[in-house]
Amino acid sequence: MKPRTVLPRLLRWLAGMVLALGALAASATTCTGKFPNPITDICWSCILPISIGGARIGNFGGQEDIDNPSSPLCTCGVNPVVGLSIGFWEPARHVEAVRKPFCLTSLGGIDLDPGIPAPEAARFTRPEADGDGGSFYQAHFYVNPVLYYLEAVTDFPCLERGSFDLAYLTEVDPLWADDELTLIINPDAVLFANPVAIAACAADCVAASLGFGIREMFWCAGCQGGLYPMDGHVPYHMGGVRTAALMAQRLTAKMHRELIAWGWHGTPGLCGPYFLPVMDKAAYKTQLTHPIPNTSKESGKCCQPFGRQTVTWGAGKEYPVRGEDFAFILFRKRNCCVGY
After folding, report:
1. How distant, in Å, are the alpha carbons of 20, 307, 336 from that of 159?
2. Counted domains in the chain
3. 72: containing domain
């Protein structure tokens, strides 16, 4: 075969490869997903430890916990009824970060598009071309009291009753795509939009990597950066898992600010939920359920507090096209007065 005939064929082959890669990139906005299998996709050890008063009576693998009410006895109600103070981590909420608007990854990849315009997810580079880039994701918040609807524990009054339900879509929320509009619900963000407040988040990152984040630094999202603004814009995209973990934390904080999510832990939570407009980030642990469930028992733990670095548990959890949407189950701290 003559060289002058090989070159045109090679060019045509390269052109075909470019078109194929372009088609593959276009397919990246397809809607894929999987409903979490409660047997294989949920790490049940995250429920631990179980406590009675200030004493932890059940724990395997050194699961992390926050302080519980010190007394084993509690009273609730107008006519006080004495009960037993119980603490555990309840899997009750689900959060997902998706590229395509109205794509319900946690419901098997259902495209729920009603025709309402909403911005798609994007990753972009900066004009100065310094190698850094940002991103934008849509996110969804689910009610998922999995222990109750599976009837894993019967006649236990401390479980939230209900079924799997879609509670919030950011596609229909104009605040999620606009940094300025979101100041309506978090005007305090202007106090922390400075280098000193942002640099202080390094301490929160260290604390979250060793245990739980620092509650007093409520404007920080640990190693994922800043919690503000509470929308889908991320100034620095450093991997899908890290960005999705930030989206889960931001959306949960947004639900607290809008009084859709409440507090269930501590002494006030013994007798029921209470308003908590500023999220207590130490009251949540997360477990990745999609695209690759994080169920490995490395160090005995497969769930992470808000803000923990993703280098260890997030490696290998993202892959092209079908593995770029992410879902997390939220284990929230629950204290309850059994007998009330």
Report:
1. 51, 26, 9
2. 1
3. 28-338
Domain-embedded: residue 323? yes
Residue with tokens 């832990």: 265
Number of Cβ within a 10 Å radius of residue 295 = 16
Listed residue (280, 318, 315, 286) closest to 302, CA to CA: 286
CA dihedral 99, 100, 106, 109 (to 10 degrees): -130
3-class secondary-structure state, position 124: strand
Residue at 22 is within a domain: no
29 three-state secondary structure:
helix
Query: What tokens were used for 203?
Result: 């301490």
Query: What's the average model confidence in pLDDT over 131-135?
Result: 74
What pTM was computed for the model? 0.88
**DSSP category for residue 323:** B
Does residue 305 belong to any structural domain of this protein?
A: yes
- When pLDDT is cut at 50, 70 and 90, the band that residue 157 belongs to is confident
Cα first-last separation, the chain: 88
